[in-house]
Amino acid sequence: MSAPRNSPSSSRSPYKNAPTRSVSVDGADFVYRELGPEEGVPLILLIHLAENLDNWDPRVVDGLAARRRVITFDNRGVGRSDGTTPDTIEATAHDAVRFIRALGCHRVDLLGLSMGGFIAQVVAAEEPRLVRKVILAGTGPAGGHGIDRVPALTVRATVKGTLTRKDPKLSLFFTETAGGRPAGRAFLRRLKERTDHRDKDISLPSFRAQLKAINGWGRQASSNLSGIRQPVLAANGESDRMVPSQNTLDLAARLPQSELVPLYPDAGHGGILQYHDGFVTTALEFLES
Asked: Which of 118, 219, 241, 267 is in the most buried spot, having the most CB atoms within 10 Å?
């Protein structure tokens, strides 16, 4: 693994202007963006299904980067990262560890959203010396209720979105209510704030590999969470139709050192995006406590 290219220092610019860099991980270039203070424990963001660097909410990233060094990256074979996308959560987690170490990081915090939360659980369990604290949002344990239905739900929403010319994240991440609909549209507008040097959309083979990985995670035997000894903050909307909200309650009940954010009202899978200001405040307090 080689050293990161184009300077290792963090960016003081907002996420929409953060430069895209790359680092070699076992011969494959992984792309990433970094911003916030240079000192302190880095916060690694683990993205959800089918998405790339441009799909992180800039309000969440900028809010966290006001006080933390924040790093986002594309998984193997996704966006502009090289290689073949793994078809298991475990292999994807191992890639994340290799990426973190390629950056020269020896101690990190993790924020995993949806599929990223599956990955974060594996990394935290297998690498206790690497991971200090974990934030799990809109996610659940292996074998969790309804997780094996996420691939079919996603495919149906994607097809419907193509036919209706509406982004599937509107229906998958937000409630169909007077509060949820405008929150979803506002989120999609924020994702378009970056106009230069945007990332590359996920390919169909990589999308299929991730769907297979999620299906496998959902069909596993119920995971033993007692091995995750790090402090964990769990958050979600009260009406998550992708990874049902009861999974967040399950995580909080079973993790040895957990703190549950009260489920966001009138919010779904994208609860932390809909309530981004409150989430950032809570996350920073948790990370700094």
From this structure: 118
In this structure, are strands 28-35 and 70-73 parallel, antiparallel, or unpaired? antiparallel
Pair 41, 63: CB distance under 8 Å: no
For residue 23, give the H/E element and its range: strand 20-25
Concatenate the DSSP letters of all residues of 180-242 into one string.
HHHHHHHHHHHHT---SSPPPPPPHHHHHHHHHHHHHHHHSPPP-GGG--S-EEEE-BTT-TT
d(CA 96, CA 75): 7
Quick one: pLDDT at residue 219?
97
| Residues in CB range of 206: below 8 A, 6 or more apart | 77, 78, 85
* CATH class of the domain whose range is 15-288: alpha beta
Residue-wise burial string across 183-193, b where 16 or more C-beta atoms lie within 10 A, e elsewhere: bbeebeebbee
Contact 5, 23 (CB under 8 A): yes
Whether 78 shows a pLDDT value over 90: the answer reads yes
Compute the distance between CA of residue 46 and CA of residue 123 in angstroms, rounded to an integer: 11
In the numeric block, which tokens belong to residue 268? 């779904």
Taking alpha carbons only, the member of 80, 78, 60 closest to residue 15 is 60
Rounded to whole angstroms, the Cα distance separating 75 from 116 reads: 10
Residue 86 amino acid letter: P
Q: Where are the domains of the chain?
A: 15-288
| Bridging pattern class, strands 20-25 and 131-137 | unpaired
Per-residue pLDDT of 94-128, as tens digits, reads 999 999 999 999 999 999 999 999 999 999 999 99
pLDDT given at position 6: 42
Q: What is the pTM of this model?
A: 0.95
Q: Among 20, 24, 47, which residue's Cα sits nearest to residue 35?
A: 20
pLDDT bin (cut points 50, 70, 90) of residue 10 is low
